[in-house]
Specification:
TIM Barrel, alpha/beta, 44% helix, binds flavin mononucleotide, two-stranded antiparallel ribbon
Length: 385
């Protein structure tokens, strides 16, 4: 019997498909993984309040974001080096998302460049930028996304430095994957994964190729360049400069508090993504869902609020939307889908969530995601609203 009936079933299947170090790279969080767990716990600490006999025969979850119509308020979050998860990486993911009527965000640390992804899709993806210290290189990357046809830019601000993902340290996980006795054993036990990766071009941070000739072109030097470009002293002024340079909608990702949300909007952001990077950056920071109501109260009237972190069920999507998120993003779930079923696997993940959202709306007696309101979510013991 297939266990692939929900996101967790895909996770179990992905765990079998991938070398342990790759699965842990995707699945793990920073340090003690408190925030990683908190993201899930925040959903399970809340309940939905159904109403009897007030439902609709046909429900809709169509959502319009910056003029783009989405079949469901679930987008694919940006993730770096996605070809590690499965063949086609970001291109397969973007195509899988389009087939399910939604949108994806290509990371600046992607393994397939954004122009290639855009060329393979009917609608170009969104693009995500890191807070780099070098403005000239930042401009090169923004220009590339613009030329690829991307309309929406996501600036991730919760990465002044990279978080300490200790599972990676323990497993000897590096980019590129270094073959040591331990990692070699892990890889040879997963020949299908290894062949899939070997079938494509060399795995590297595709947008960094040729960006700084003096830094060389090996995958390890580009991975190091990606770290060196991060700027822990990035400022709101730097964000303004990006804002001035980008004409289209701009979202700030990594917001967990009202003050930062206000600041981002003052700098010209059209929206914010309430996120803690899936618990991969600072540990012991609030769960995204706990942070959401405060951010919505602060900027929800003037900006688009999205959220990510721990969304694994349609009921999670419904809760987040009821609490004021216009849509959610999923990170790990689509990577499980890619690992298990490539492009189709990604589509399946979105479809599973879409079907669960639809059923949840029916069971709650609500006709559309737009009709969800905060009073339809209750906190249970121990919740921090
Ligand atoms: C393997 C992996 C790589 C990621 N890389 C990036 C990235 O390059 N840029 C970014 O803004 N967020 C990145 N993220 C964070 C996701 O965009 C998103 O915030 C997070 O995965 C949401 O939590 P979830 O995985 O519980 O859905 C990454 C997440 C994972 C799991």
């Amino acid at each position: 019997m297939s266990t692939r009936i929900n996101v967790d079933g895909y996770r179990t299947a992905a765990r079998k498909r991938l070398p342990r170090m790759v699965f842990d790279f995707i699945d793990g969080g920073a340090e003690d993984e408190r925030t990683l767990r908190a993201n899930r716990a925040a959903f399970t600490r809340r309940t939905l309040t159904p109403r009897l006999l007030s439902g609709s025969a046909r429900r809709t979850q169509e959502t319009i974001l910056f003029g783009e119509k989405l079949a469901t308020p679930v987008l694919l979050a940006p993730t770096g080096l996605s070809r590690l998860a499965g063949r086609g990486g970001e291109l397969a993911a973007a195509r899988g998302a389009r087939a399910a009527g939604t949108q994806s965000v290509v990371s600046s640390a992607a393994s397939v460049p954004v122009d290639e992804v855009a060329a393979g899709c009917d609608v170009p993806p969104w693009f995500q930028l890191y807070p780099w210290g070098d403005w000239d290189l930042t401009r090169v990357l923004i220009d590339r996304a613009r030329l690829a046809g991307c309309t929406t830019l996501v600036v991730t601000l919760d990465v002044p430095v990279t978080g300490a993902r200790e599972r990676d340290y323990r497993n000897g996980m590096t980019v590129p994957v270094k073959i040591t006795p331990r990692t070699a054993f892990d890889v040879v036990r997963h020949p299908r994964w290894a062949l899939g990766l070997a079938a494509g071009p060399r795995l590297t941070m595709a947008h960094l190729v040729g960006l700084r000739e003096d830094r060389g072109s090996s995958a390890s030097s580009l991975a190091q360049l990606n770290l060196d470009l991060l700027n822990a002293a990035y400022s709101w002024e730097d964000l303004r400069r990006v804002r001035d340079y980008w004409d289209g909608p701009l979202l700030v990702k990594g917001v967990l508090g009202a003050a930062d949300a206000r600041r981002a909007v003052q700098c010209g952001a059209d929206g914010v993504i309430v996120s803690n990077h899936g618990g991969r950056q600072a540990d012991a920071v609030p769960a995204s869902l706990d942070a959401l109501p405060g951010v919505v109260a602060a900027v929800g009237h003037e900006a688009t609020v999205l959220m990510d972190g721990g969304v694994r069920r349609g009921t999670d999507v419904v809760m987040a939307v009821a609490l004021g998120a216009r849509a959610v993003l999923i990170g790990r779930p689509w990577m499980y889908g890619l690992a298990v079923g490539g492009e189709t696997g990604v589509t399946r993940i979105v479809e599973i969530l879409r079907d669960e959202v639809d059923r949840t709306l029916a069971l709650m007696g609500v006709g559309s995601t737009a009709a969800l309101t905060p009073d339809m979510v209750r906190s249970t013991v121990g919740a921090t609203p």
